[in-house]
Amino acid sequence: MAAARPSLGRVLPGSSVLFLCDMQEKFRHNIAYFPQIVSVAARMLKVARLLEVPVMLTEQYPQGLGPTVPELGTEGLRPLAKTCFSMVPALQQELDSRPQLRSVLLCGIEAQACILNTTLDLLDRGLQVHVVVDACSSRSQVDRLVALARMRQSGAFLSTSEGLILQLVGDAVH
């Protein structure tokens, strides 16, 4: 009997979704590399829109942490408010309505809280998770690095925005 082949982690526009997690005003001055994280996530959002990859946006307790930062460029997206340290409960209905979904591209903050818990919940649902490491951060770099290692141990793919964008596009003539 042949051994089961591990997932290769291929990313295709028709079976992927982009998650943008909690890039809000109150985090602006506390999260390491915040401007760069938001800039890379904004780039992922532009590519998702061009390739018609669905996008889901959450805000952690917006009454206290404020709205999503404007430079992310989320015009036209409706953020879902949450208090849970996972995006999945807030997006449950949306996820259930997408039977073709195989891969989630995950950007946001904080790595050891909402990104880690979202990753674990998505993996538990049998989805592939691609953590966009240059679009995820935390207040503490120790927390960020340990959370990324934990996600990899659990089966998530750690990728860069460039690597994921090139997989989504697939060809230099695109």
From TrEMBL:
Cited Pfam families: Isochorismatase
Origin: domain of life: Eukaryota
Ranges where the Isochorismatase-like domain occurs: 16-162
GO cellular component, one term: mitochondrion
Subunit structure: Interacts with CDKN2A.
Family: Belongs to the isochorismatase family.
Protein name: Isochorismatase domain containing 2
The organism's taxonomic lineage, starting at the top: Eukaryota, Metazoa, Chordata, Craniata, Vertebrata
